[in-house]
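quick one, 279 residues, struct below
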Amino acid sequence: MDKLFATLPEMEPGWVWLTGAGPGDPGLLTLLAVKALGSADVIVYDALVDRSILDLARPGAVLEYAGKRGGKPSAKQPDISLRLVQLAREGKRVLRLKGGDPFVFGRGGEEALTLVESGIPFRIVPGISAGIGGLAYAGIPVTHREVNSAVAFVTGHDATGEVPDSVDWASLARGAPVIVLYMALKHLGRIAERLMAGGRSATTPVAVVARATTADQAVLETTLSRAAAEVEAAGIEPPAMVVVGEVVRLRAAMDWMGALQGRRLEPDPLGLRRRDQTG
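---
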């Protein structure tokens, strides 16, 4: 392992590494992310970075919280970007650590543009997005060739905090067999109404995966028309991913974490093999 790490690029003073920490489980970190954690002078991290990941920081590294939470006091994005510039100009090795992937609804692009404008050298280190890795930990594949040939990743709110009007919800309802929603709990009822108005069935399977890949992971299986009410009744709070589509039914066969706790898995929940045999 030491030989492998020796081949990886070094984190230089005055550089910023925009790095994805994955959905929560430290085992899902990339090698470059681990190396950055062990090299950085300052780690500027967001609210979705699990504490177990921060525990991997080198002794003496300064941890600066720059998280955002809807409806709560949060750092302003321009201030965060300028802070990265300031730290780099001080000659620090700066790790900007974001949950998931920095370029998937993570505002990494905004920070990168600020670094470019300020002449700060940087590296992008991708991470596993919660919309893929988090659902996999829930036993839900975002694609299955017998179910869907397309998947849409959509944010549940825009820069104003409201349901994005820039999204053509009717076209999305008709054209995307699987829809993965980030940051959607607050407006889940309104989003469901728009999808149903666009033609999506009220009985479409929905899963809500909260605190994905962590020891506190919780999964709620429901339907499009009932999702908002059942999320509220269950007391589910962010962070959570929402997936809409028939792939949710495959969880009956692929809930590998549930199987570790004794859940009996159903081999063919969609009747695909039976269909092949009779077809």
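The chain is about 30% helix and 20% strand.
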